[in-house]
Amino acid sequence: MTFALDIFLIVLLVLAIGYGFALNRRIVALRRDQKDLDKLAASFNSATQRAEAGVSQLRAATENSVRSLQQTIAKAETLIGDMDYLLERGDRTADRLEGAVRGGENALPGERSRRPDQSEYNDLAGNNDEELELLKALRAVR
């Protein structure tokens, strides 16, 4: 009976030693994989930091672009107001000139071909610098 017990213990020891070797191989593989995982985690951390820096730079560039765009829009709105004012003044001046021309159609033929001089433009334009500039521009187009 002791012999059977000895064989049973020998079998159990051989199984335990075999299991120990298998377990050792798995532990070695796990450590190797853990080192690879540590490298991967470090690489991922580095990539994350670069991405955060890139996002910060992109955010700063966007804010600069927004500020620049807002300034451009403000300038454009000012120019729109100026252009509206000039168009309004030009329409009024054109109406006055048209009235003067229509009034001149009933004049004698010799008077009709006469161009108004600067003083007549001043009367039509109300001596306003902007209207004078508009009239100069209209004259230059002719």
Report on the structure:
The structure is a single chain. The protein is rod-shaped, with a radius of gyration of 47 Å. The chain is 91% helix and 0% strand. It has one domain (2-141). The longest helix has 104 residues, at 2-105. It contains four helices and no strands. It is mainly α and 142 residues long. The model has no long low-confidence stretch (mean pLDDT 83). It starts with a helix and ends with a helix.
In short:
The protein is mainly alpha-helical. It is built from four helices and no strands.
Q: How do the strands and helices of this protein lay out in sequence?
A:
Layout lengths: L1 H104 L3 H4 L5 H8 L3 H13 L1
Radius of gyration based on Cα positions? 47 Å
Pattern of helices and strands: HHHH
How much of the polypeptide forms β-strand, as a percent range?
under 5%
Count the domains. Answer: 1
Largest sheet: none
Poorly predicted runs = none
Number of distinct helices: 4
Oligomeric description of these chains: single chain
Name the descriptors:
142 residues, mainly alpha, 4 helices
